[in-house]
């Protein structure tokens, strides 16, 4: 059996980082999943005026402060993308592509999901639809691959896969200068539906059709309802009580994913509460 952590935290925005700090202070073994950049939303914020103690700070500066805090506490970020989380009774299994992690308690701090799943995305997951292009690239050697990219990181994954694939289409869902290999064909169109028989064969676009053996959807986060089977949602957010408890025993949530207002200081406060609740829960298991 692999290592079982006390608390696994999914998300490295203010809620996830605050949860990590507070669980670590209380001597819990934690694992924090997220991005090396912490939060795409945070680094884009031009000015933040309501984060107590830091008037007029930019998102980039606040991010650097967060990083210094993480380094001072010796907290590392595991840059794996969690695709699913299963409640197993007295522990949880977190799946990151082909890797599995175990934890007694989970804190979801996944931010707010702005993109609905594509039609056919859930049905073909693992049968031609994937969320990690670099992990599954070897399966597509000499085949046709389509990458739907929601952020700049998706470009690196696309470049990597293009070395193996026979043909790679890149559909950006954002504007910018794309740093892509010459082998890649950029398609400015809206993906609508993934289709196939047993496995993916076609991606329908608003203005056409692509024949493809695989579709990688590289976005910041998948919705918590998709991520954790059985999790109770309410108007697109995770339903929690005042202690940040969800309807699943040992699963807590904090930050934008539990509702408005979408403010960094509110998320950080909720991260603290979620950590205290998770710590009490883990202690009660002894």
What does this structure look like?
The protein has 286 residues and is α/β, with parallel strands linked by helices. It has two domains: 4-113 and 221-284, FAD/NAD(P)-binding domain, CATH 3.50.50; 129-218, FAD/NAD(P)-binding domain. The chain is 24% helix and 27% strand. It contains seven helices and 17 strands. Strands 1, 2, 3, 4, 5, 6 and 17 form a seven-stranded mixed sheet that branches. A five-stranded parallel sheet has the order 7-14-8-9-10, with helices on one face. Helix 1 (14-25) runs parallel beside helix 7.
Concise structural overview:
The chain has 286 residues and is α/β, with parallel strands linked by helices. It has helices spanning 14-25, 40-43, 59-72, 133-136, 153-162, 224-227, 264-284; strands at 4-10, 30-33, 77-78, 84-87, 92-96, 99-108, 129-130, 144-149, 167-172, 184-186, 191-196, 200-205, 208-211, 214-218, 233-234, 237-238, 251-253. Strands 1, 2, 3, 4, 5, 6 and 17 form a seven-stranded mixed β-sheet that branches. Strands 7-14-8-9-10 form a five-stranded parallel β-sheet, with helices on one face.
